[in-house]
Design brief:
Layout lengths: L7 E2 L11 H6 L3 E9 L5 E9 L5 E9 L10 E2 L19 E3 L4 E4 L6 E4 L5 E3 L8 E9 L5 E9 L9 E8 L9 E4 L4 E7 L5 E7 L5 H4 L1 E10 L2 E12 L13 E6 L4 E9 L1 E10 L32 E3 L5 E7 L2 E7 L6 E2 L7 E8 L2 E7 L6 E6 L5 E3 L16 E6 L5 E7 L6 E2 L8 E5 L13 H7 L4 E6 L8 H5 L8 H15 L8 E6 L1 H18 L8 E5 L5 H7 L7 H5 L7 H7 L12 E6 L7 H14 L3 E6 L9 H19 L13 E5 L7
Parallel strand pairs: 1-31, 32-33, 32-34, 34-35, 35-36, 36-37, 37-38
Antiparallel strand pairs: 2-3, 3-4, 4-5, 6-7, 7-8, 8-9, 10-11, 11-12, 12-13, 14-15, 15-16, 16-17, 18-19, 19-20, 21-22, 22-23, 23-24, 25-26, 26-27, 27-28, 29-30, 30-33
Helix pairs in contact: 5-6
Length: about 700
Amino acid sequence: MTDTPQPVVAPHGSWPSALTAEMAAAGAVRFDGVRVAQLADGTVRVRWQESRPAERGRGALCEWVGALGATDASSPRDLGPAATSARSAVNEYGGGSWWDDGDRMFLVDAATQQVHRLDRSGVAAPVTAEVAGLVARHASGTVTPDGRWLVCEREVQRSHGPRDEPVNELVACRADQAVPTEALTVVAGADFVAAPTLSPDGRCLAWLQWDHPDMPWDAAALWAGWFDVEGGVPAVRDPRRVAGGRGVGDTGMPPVSVCLPRWSPEGELWWCDDRSDDWLLHRAGGPGVPAEGAGDERRPEWTGVGEVGEPRWVAGGARFGFTDDGRIVFAAVADGFDTMWVATPDTTAVLMPGPTFTHVESVAVSGHHVALVAGSPTAPTSVWLVDLSTGASLDLRATTAPLADGDISVPRAITFPTSDGEHAHGLFHAPTSTRAASPPGTLPPLIVRIHGGPTAASRAEFSTSVQFWTTRGFAVLEVDYRGSTGYGRRYRDLLRGAWGVADVEDCRAAARWLADHGLVDRDRCVIRGGSAGGFTALAALVRDGEDRRSGGSGVFAAACSLYGVTDLTALAADTHKFESRYLDGLVGAWPQDAATYVERSPLTHVERIDVPVLILQGADDPVVPVSQAELLRGALAARGVAHGYVVFAGEAHGFRQAANIVRALECELAFYGEVLGFTPDGQPPSVLARSTAVAPDSPET
């Protein structure tokens, strides 16, 4: 018998950790777009997509075929040529980059943005033809039952003036031709049309649409019509609004957001809408194309289980599916944690048998099998197959946490008071380690992590990007500030007109609440965020500076901004179509409320930032251009504020390449070491007042 090593006593932040930056980067593989099919021989086929940092962010398509419980379990295999990369750039955020109709798979080629067909031989051939003078991107397709036609989203730039927006539409093209064919428009007219889905008989097409200045989570409407192909020309006949959207005529209907439309095997249209606060499941009440406005008064199928829908940032979402015996399987989120449910329209929903998942990314159902991209606080998100009849399950990627159970910090949901008499939410991770302990009488430093969006939410999953910090002695709080999803429409709308105010107050209130409860060191709190989260982090420093100027005290000792928004005026003027009117709801109408944009921008008040800042930025970011980071860096340098600035060549909005993810983590750790006074991983910290440009595959600079 060997003695168990005694934990070393070390200051928070300098705890020895088994989780290296390289391991954390390897854990950044993301799975998406799962599909499942029960085959004639009794086996099950599951397909999905992986985004792989180790392959420079390649979107690889994967397949597993086998049977649950088989002694000769098969392994997943990659599909298509090794260079195949599926990624859509529609609305810049992409998603919905592949679909199938059985043997054939269709993917959006990352390089050309054209749709390609991948057959059983593994050969990828273009389906959509490039048209001279047009820049087109595709996403989220569906195929007619006869396999002849596909319908998908297309974003096309037809004119190239400084204010000319691309056109979003639904197009159809031949899916079975040996040569690519030109896609034909079947639905257009709204500023955005998305999420096409065909009924099982191929006769009905449903989709979502919305117009500026709404975002899809503000007022997206569900539309449907009859899909015909007469004389070889596809068309949608008699389209009508089924549910949701902005108020129609004089009805006085408040804005309703519809998401996730899908047809049942019986040809009945289902969707989620938020008329009752949560995004809950609704159905049309019969097969075929529903009547105009037929869904406006439909009652939700189940209540009290949580929110099923999600904000449509990316194409191709899936949170529910149907079995072959009339049941529906769906994911719902409550208090930051997902659960899986099974029900029929006439019964109460019950928990799905099998593993307990707390984060569900994607759901697919075939027969009595459910495939999920899902995870839990102790099991990394992976691709799972579950048999509803037995509860048997299999992790198709055989993922394991790169930490012992005793080293994993399991989050707990917290709710805390904030400004205006409201309450906000978050997931708290305490520092956890079997290798180290803190000196007596000390409390951990806190990292307040801000999700992007800002209409997004924290994920209750095992995250190497969280455990990297908790294993080193940090406490981490992921804040679901007002405006976050998963808590209903009212909570989401609390950020309307209040971005840069309510979110900032929630993050500050969260840190103070944890300190008041003796969970963190009040003087060693830092804040970090990417994109919109970077804006909130910087705005929090501005607010802290205001308090100190007034004789009060701030909350945060430093901030890390990853590709963060610094100038709201520049964002409103320069950003892409999808978000070009987003700030109308978050800040105010543009340009009428230009003064508010200036007042809320961190760059406007950079003189109030008096604590260190680390800026991590992608050189090719189309959402938050590098120019914004440059302006912030210059302003900090001019005032002599300690800062670090690292630009990553070859990266856009978010870091995809493993080497860059590693470097970003190492810089952030060194930064906190310098600011908070500890030695990270045994290395003297050094990142402040330094500007570097990192090539995609460069070593340490």
